[in-house]
Recover the amino acids of this structure.
């Protein structure tokens, strides 16, 4: 009994430390210099679960919890754009069972969260080849887009069946069609024209890319948009990523010197 009580006290004091640290991080954050656009590769669900002796699906479910927390904090901080990598064009190589679990989690997430997302003025913008998703996932995405389309707060880009290369192929095809139709000349193809044909059209490029789980890769994510993005990498697995980690990433971002290939002004 005593042992158990001691355990509980210990857990409570860790929670208290976490709350204090979060408060301190929040205090240090300069709310006038937040990134306009944060992108996240939600990686490490599988390894996190395996380490606990649990099936990978357990990690994906825990990953949804992290996502919920992160979206909530982005809303609180009034961030303008958040992009998350939920399913890549390469993720179809996974076992059918895992793909089904991911699609079911997406559907469950959208139906469960849409009212709260709308109450917080969040607009869902899917990125990727949605027509290739299973029917129930397509329906959930369509529902979420329709319900949130007039919201003016956080733009929440969810990359689903997304690949940076596939996105560039899409842009090249659409621009090619405009050339064929005589709506565009070759000289009019520039950065703005290409950006207009990406899923992020009209949005600023990400200022900050967060990749948890200790891997140092871009993994075919936002290949065009990441040209001058600041990277923040951590060994923390996505299911353990929460408010504290996002605040740490934002604070670190605020300490960076961004030169965009030019020289620093003083
Ligand atoms: C990478 O972890 C994560 C994914 C491929 C899927 C991310 C999905 C979620 C967080 C939940 C579902 C999404 C939504 C939008 C509700 P991994 O499986 O590659 O982990 P590993 O590298 O440790 O194997």
């Amino acid at each position: 009994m005593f042992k158990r009580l001691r355990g509980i006290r210990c857990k409570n004091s860790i929670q208290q430390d976490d709350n204090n640290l979060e408060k301190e991080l929040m205090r240090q954050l300069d709310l006038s210099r937040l990134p306009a656009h944060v992108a996240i590769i939600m990686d490490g669900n599988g390894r996190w679960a395996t380490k606990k002796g649990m099936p990978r699906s357990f990690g994906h479910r825990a990953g949804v919890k992290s996502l919920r927390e992160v979206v909530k904090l982005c809303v609180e901080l009034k961030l303008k754009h958040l992009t998350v990598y939920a399913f890549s064009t390469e993720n179809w190589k996974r076992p059918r069972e895992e793909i089904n679990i991911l699609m079911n989690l997406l559907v469950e997430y959208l139906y469960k969260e849409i009212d709260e997302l709308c109450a917080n003025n969040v607009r869902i913008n899917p990125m990727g080849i949605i027509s290739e998703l299973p029917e129930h996932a397509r329906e959930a995405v369509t529902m979420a887009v329709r319900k949130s389309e007039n919201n003016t707060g956080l733009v929440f880009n969810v990359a689903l069946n997304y690949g940076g290369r596939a996105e560039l192929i899409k842009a090249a095809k659409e621009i090619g069609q405009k050339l064929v139709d005589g709506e565009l000349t070759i000289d009019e193809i520039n950065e703005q024209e290409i950006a207009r044909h990406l899923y992020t059209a009209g949005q600023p490029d990400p200022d900050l890319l967060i990749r948890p789980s200790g891997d140092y890769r871009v993994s075919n994510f936002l290949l065009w948009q990441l040209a001058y993005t600041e990277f923040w990498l951590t060994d923390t697995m996505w299911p353990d990523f929460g408010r504290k980690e996002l605040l740490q990433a934002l604070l670190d971002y605020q300490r960076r010197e961004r030169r965009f290939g030019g020289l620093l002004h003083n």
Summary: The CA atoms of residues 4 and 10 lie 10 Å apart. The chain is about 50% helix and 15% strand. The helical segments are 2-28, 45-51, 56-76, 96-119, 135-148, 164-180, 191-196, 243-254.
